[in-house]
Amino acid sequence: MTIFQPDFLLHGADYNYEQWLDYPDILAQDFRLMGLAQCNVVSVGIFSWAMLEPAEGKYEFGWMDQMLDSLAENGVRAILATPSGAKPAWLAHAYPEVRVVDGNGRCEPHRLRHNHCPTSPIYRQKVRQINTLLAQRYKEHPALFMWHISNEYGSYDCRCDLCYNAFREWLQARYGTLEALNHAWWTTFWSHRYTDWSQIEPVDPSVHGLMLDWQRFISDQVLDFYLAEIEPLRAITPHVPITTNFMQPNVGLDYWKFAQYLDVVSWDSYPRWHSQPEGDTAVAVKTSFYHDLYRSLKRQPFLLMESTPSVTNWQGISRTKRPGLHLLSSLQAVAHGSNSAQYFQWRQSRGGEEKFHGAVVSHAGHEHTRVFREVTAVGAHLAQLQNVTTTCNQAQVALVYDLQNEWALDLARLPRSEDKLYQERCIAHYRPFWDAGITVDLIDSSTVDLTPYKLIIAPMLYMLRDGFADRLHQFVQAGGTLLLTYLSGLVNESDLCFIGDSPLRKLLGLWVEETDSLFAHHVQALHPMADNDLHLSGSYAATHFADIVHLDGAEALACYGHDFYAGQPALTVNRVGNGRCYYLATRPDSRFLHDFYTALSTQLDLPRAIPTPLPAGLTAQVRQNGREQYLFLMNFQPAPQTVNLGAAHYQDALSGDGVQDMVELEGYGLRVLRKEIG
User: Fold this and answer.
1) Which residues pair with 582 in a beta bridge?
2) Cα(577)–Cα(182) distance, rounded to whole angstroms?
3) pLDDT category, 5, cuts 50, 70, 90?
4) Contacts of 424 (CB under 8 A, 6+ apart)
5) What is the spatial distance between Cα 304 and Cα 378, in angstroms, rounded to a whole number?
6) Residue 345: is the preceding peptide bond cis (ω within 30°)?
7) 114 pairs with which residues across the strands?
8) What sections of 530-666 are H helices per DSSP?
9) Residue 230 DSSP SS3
10) Taking the alpha carbons of 532, 535, 541, 543 in that order, is the dihedral positive or negative?
11) DSSP summary character for residue 259
12) Region 652-660: what's the mean pLDDT?
């Protein structure tokens, strides 16, 4: 793999040059405007297959030659896409097997995008041909900076015979025999037992192991398609880095597995700013969570490949960004580990699905707009922060966000199947650290190294992967602190319930007898015990789930307030070796999570961006190397706020002026401060 380490921060956009070939005056304007906005990179060729190969075997590369030459002449680098995300109409009509088959067995018409069968040998062959030609033609072009593979791979639920046969082969490789599969899926229930591989079709949601494996197969098949796409690129241009742009993590792909095969992770971020009556803090927290996820996939800086400089056109309602928010949200990505701020799109399209999607250059076609001025401000900031690319975020806290666990939990028919909200609860446990300016890594439960962390948080770890309980036990034994919650350790990787003791019993020092499922109007109380070592006091609200537990070595730190299990443990701690394992048996309110994690952070002496408390809605993040540290202060409130830096002395990273004591931030304002360390 190529190590991606740029020496500048990327600033640019998706550039659909081919849409404007009949408008040479607009193309000339584009390069002038890119210079004004300090854009140094553009993503090109996305969805351009029909322009590159308008008929089978007939290629027209002249327009792309002209575009890449113009980019090179203007000092703009190209992130060149492979065009597989939208096949041309001629291909769909000449080879019907490349089209997706829906759940009713109907071959879908040629429409939309990502409308291909990922298993089709013909489609893979055609993709390989066009990718090979692109690599051969542009391998030495001075504008070529990086490969952008397809665009926003999704979870392609194709139900054709090719996919079903590939799924059965995948199952045979996973289980070996039908006997093993039948046991793993517990198919004697409702007489679902299979006696021949050909009988298996992923159409029965009552067989949870089947549907979980189908989702795993889809994810693996898309990854296999990606690996086939990049083969000619790796062979012809081994020096050119490769990425593909991920989306929000609930698209049905295991990004933890996928990321191993990228040189750098990139993703497309589209928060719904100004959508919540209480303000933008919750949106900012969720966006930060996603940024930290994509940084954590490879534990290295990532790229923000797409964002909007103004609005989207597909969210139902998308408000115009308030003044200052575009700069703030762009630098928010950089603060959490991005080495870029890029947009969809450079220039608004005249027609099609996204003609009203925001862009750097609007239909007005000139630079005299607020959006263009704010994009230019981002370019200016990034140009002055080039050394940030040599830094990274360093965390001593890890939060387990396991996508396969989420798939299994979504399938589970629990006594309370409503509002399981796995991702939402992970974000709820993440937020106290965001509020405090403490960096968090996200991890999955496969093979990630746990030793860098002091604290690991694993909410709702419903599915235990093989060996993970042992690895958590070793982490705690060696001195680590772990938090587990209700709905943890219930099933194995095949979604079979554990019989007898849970693999987590010794670690938790307790066992769960039953779980009370609470309706929306039921609110349980959580009362800390007197003289608990976290100094929690008062009373907290708890909802949704309440485990009724029996202690077996653990100590109760809080108890339930009412119902027949009033006075029984709701929060426990078990001391194992040199470490501690906490168990939260219910879903507490945000005030409890704030107080609990504040106390833990103090006990563990977790490093904060600044030593003093941060005002509500304001966060701080740090990127550093062995020589210097960059402190990003970000205010997601519309009103000005003041930050107390304590005794620290910084320089403003843009002006070079000395900064200490109190720092004022405007509404939706930010400051980037720098200091030497080491």
Assistant:
1) 483, 573
2) 40
3) confident
4) none
5) 13
6) yes
7) none
8) 590-604
9) helix
10) negative
11) G
12) 92
Task: Give residue 448's pLDDT.
Answer: 87
434: its two tokens: 């965001």
Q: Which residues contact 188 (CB under 8 A, 6 or more apart)?
A: 182
pTM here is 0.97
Buried b (16+ CB within 10 A) or exposed e, 368-402: ebebbebbbbbbebbeebebbbbbbbebbbbbbbb
Q: Would you put residue 456 in left (φ > 0), alpha (ψ -120 to 50) or beta?
A: beta
Name, in order, each residue with C-beta under 8 angstroms of 633's C-beta and a sequence gap of 6 or more: 618, 620, 643, 663, 665, 670, 671, 672, 673
Tokens of 53: 């190969």
Q: Under 8 Å CB-to-CB from 284, ≥6 apart: which residues?
A: 271, 332, 617, 619, 634, 636
The pLDDT > 90 percentage for the chain reads: 95
Distance CA 660, CA 647 (A): 7
Whole-angstrom distance between the N-terminal and C-terminal Cα of the chain?
Answer: 31
- Could you give the residue numbers annotated as active site? 152, 306
- The answer for residues whose C-beta is within 8 angstroms of residue 158's C-beta and 6 or more apart is 100, 101, 117, 118, 119
- The CA R_g of the chain, rounded to the nearest whole Å, is 26
Per the CB < 8 A criterion, the answer to whether 305 and 340 are in contact is yes
Residue 112 has pLDDT above 90, yes or no: no
Predicted local distance difference test score (pLDDT) of residue 570: 98
Distances from the Cα of 326 to the Cα of 3, 204, 389, 463, angstroms: 30, 46, 21, 39
Domains and CATH numbers, the chain: 10-157+222-390 (3.20.20.80), 397-604 (3.40.50.880), 618-676 (2.60.40.1180)
Q: What pLDDT, on the 0 to 100 scale, is given for residue 629?
A: 97
